[in-house]
Amino acid sequence: MTPQRVTLITLGVRDLPRSRAFYEAMGWRPTRPQDGVVFYQMHGAVLALFGLSDLAEDQGRAGAALGTGAMTLAQNFTTEADVDAAYEAALRAGASGLKAPRKVFWGGYSGYYADPDGHVWEVAMNPFWPLSADGSLTLPEGE
Amino acid sequence: MTPQRVTLITLGVRDLPRSRAFYEAMGWRPTRPQDGVVFYQMHGAVLALFGLSDLAEDQGRAGAALGTGAMTLAQNFTTEADVDAAYEAALRAGASGLKAPRKVFWGGYSGYYADPDGHVWEVAMNPFWPLSADGSLTLPEGE
């Protein structure tokens, strides 16, 4: 049994200063600088940037070619305009656009971009998923 | 500018029932069943399982080979015994062990396993990072 939680998300990156500059341009502010790793406090969890080869070694498989794309991170917003603004901010910061935000079959509005290492972010508005005041997401009863 | 938050983590999976059974065996309980997607409520965010090819299509690149490993999810615990128990539970549920938990250079205790699709989870105890009562992680001041 493991608890139903994630406390830390780590992105393996090829060039730590480049990635840090990208997230800085997105408005993210790291905690106190540390050697070889960058931490961002989120609500109840932390996002980390860590060297890609360091990450492979830490996983016990030094030299492995680690892939991206099959795990995505989403930011939910309350309006389509907020989704558009976040997507445009990402492109200005140097993200690669994968799919410009658009209405999608499940009734919401969603787009995708990739960060400098190909880590995939979704920006979305789901009319059935109201966000809490602090920006966190708790699914409605019955969902 | 984007908010410093992740509200949804999506894992692309090759076989949704198999993945659902894996997370079920780990003790995770999904929300109301839906077609083609499984949601787990976490603290303030949601984890989703979604078909790998559906995810590629949703990202606007149908047919793309999406990779795993360069983005990892961690569960922090308060004791080494809790880390060991979570790691062993994962192996019993069918995870592939990558690195059995051990003391690591930064002063903590950490192991890694991969879920049936190669999504990488870390289980760790960091003595410098106390967890909140609800299991969430807020970095100490000055970190």
Unreliable spans of chain A? none
Mean pLDDT of chain A, as a whole number? 95
What is the count of β-strands of chain A?
Answer: 7
**Cα shape of chain A:** globular
The neighbouring-strand order within the major sheet of chain A is: 4-7-6-5
Q: Which two chains share the most extensive interface? A: A-B, 72 and 72 residues
Structural class of chain A: alpha/beta
Helix percent band of chain A = 10-25%
**Which percent range describes the beta-strand content of chain A?**
25-35%
Question: In terms of quaternary structure, what is this?
Answer: homodimer
Distance between the termini of chain A: 23 Å
Gyration radius from CA atoms of chain A, angstroms: 16 Å
The secondary-structure element order of chain A is EHEEHEHEEE
Major β-sheet annotation of chain A: 4 strands, mixed
Count of DSSP-assigned helices of chain A: 3
Question: What does it look like?
Answer:
2 copies of one chain form a homodimer. Chain A is of the alpha/beta class. Chain A contains 3 helices and 7 strands; from the N terminus they run E-H-E-E-H-E-H-E-E-E. Chain A has helices spanning 16-25, 52-58, 80-92, and strands spanning 8-13, 37-41, 46-51, 71-77, 96-103, 109-114, 120-125. A 4-stranded mixed sheet of chain A has the order 4-7-6-5, with helices on one face. In chain A, strands 1-3-2 form a 3-stranded mixed sheet. The model of chain A has no long low-confidence stretch (mean pLDDT 95). At the A-B interface, strand 1, strand 2, helix 2, strand 4 and helix 3 of A face strand 1, strand 2, helix 2, strand 4 and helix 3 of B. Strand 4 of chain A pairs antiparallel with strand 1 (8-13) of chain B.
